[in-house]
Structure of Catechol 2,3-dioxygenase-like lactoylglutathione lyase family enzyme:
Amino acid sequence: MIDHLDHLVLTTRDKERCIDFYTRVLGMQLETFGAGRVAFKFGAQKINLHEYGKEFLPKAQAPTPGSLDLCFIASLPLDQVIARLHAADVAIEEGPLMRTGANWPIRSVYVRDPDLNLIEISEQA
């Protein structure tokens, strides 16, 4: 019945720091839509951004900054991703490590975004 993910919602305490991380560090495109809403576009998906305490309706039962654990497949080789993270002064919490992805083995590094969400960045192994 379900084919693929269209978007998900990230709740942040600091909109400007969050936008900087997802656009400058991860290279996603900032999109503005609706009545002042913003999202991060990448590939054929997007992440809609909600500010904590100012969420759009309807919303999750308990939107909480820092509660996400996301895995992204990089468009660059992981060694280039690691270099970009170092250049942006983003600490790698773990990795590179071998993991099991949705469709194949992956090689991953783990970082935290400004709200302390766990962000896994991977390449097909």
Summary: The mean pLDDT is 96. The longest strand covers residues 105-112. The domain at 7-124 is CATH 3.10.180.10 (2,3-Dihydroxybiphenyl 1,2-Dioxygenase; domain 1).
